[in-house]
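User: Second chain of the day. Same drill as before.
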Amino acid sequence: MIKKLQFFVVIISLFLLLACHQERNESIKLMNAGIKAHKTGNDSLAIQKLQEASTTDPSNAWAYFYKATILEKNATNSHSFEAAAKAYQQAIDVLPGEFLFYYHQAVVYAKLEENQQVIDSLLKGISVKKGKHKVTLGEAYYRLGQAYMNLNQYDKAQEAWHQAIINRPQLSEAYSALAGLYLKFKIHSHAAQVLKNAIENHPEEARHYRDLGLIYQQLQNYPQALDILEKGFEKNESASDFLYFLGETYVQMQDDRRAEVYFHRYLKKGTPKEEKIMVAAAQKRLSEITKRKIVKSKEQSPTP
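Assistant: Same format as last time:
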């Protein structure tokens, strides 16, 4: 009797296993159809197929995830972003050990300006991800720093951005963010060191040269400012603002002759519309230089 019962238990288990296997296969099939629909631009069909995939097999976390990514992509207001965050949470509930789910949920919360929820999602994600796939981990720390900064938690922002750089030295934005934090508190030496490290790791990134040059300018270390700004302009000659800042540095050095050259080059090179203020400032500087030249000329003229 016991052997017969054991036999029936084995048979029932096999049927259940087969049924689960069939459900998973059907769910994956529906999920793939949803992904294909999304790639062809039919997001409404994609959402429908992904919903069917998760209904067919509620343990298919990736069906929830792909649905969430499409909802996020098409979100236009807080309600639709919240729907995306909820879908990411469904994926997390099924598969809590997958870092990407937490990371993308945090991105949605950032768009909702829910900084504490950004922090909560990222910290949970980092806790399951530590030591793996450092590229995404670096980005997570960078976003974590942004959220802390928005909440005026500066020490935690500083540490998060340090970790972002450690985990992904190629993440240029983390250097800029950390240097900006130091400048906020007028810790120029720390900001300069961060930007030196940024240039070492990103020698082609012109903005780090600009930012470091302006720090040297503020510190009245003009030779260093000129050297760094000139190197930055060599890296990106389309960035005309370097010419303006070089001219401004020479003005502060009371070298009107060289300042005039750079301001003329700046105005001649053509500037983006967003630089209107700098264009006006350059024109004002040139006017001031002209006035000084006239005054100097009169002073040097012999009296009759």
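DSSP finds 15 helices and no strands in the chain.

User: Great, on to the next one.
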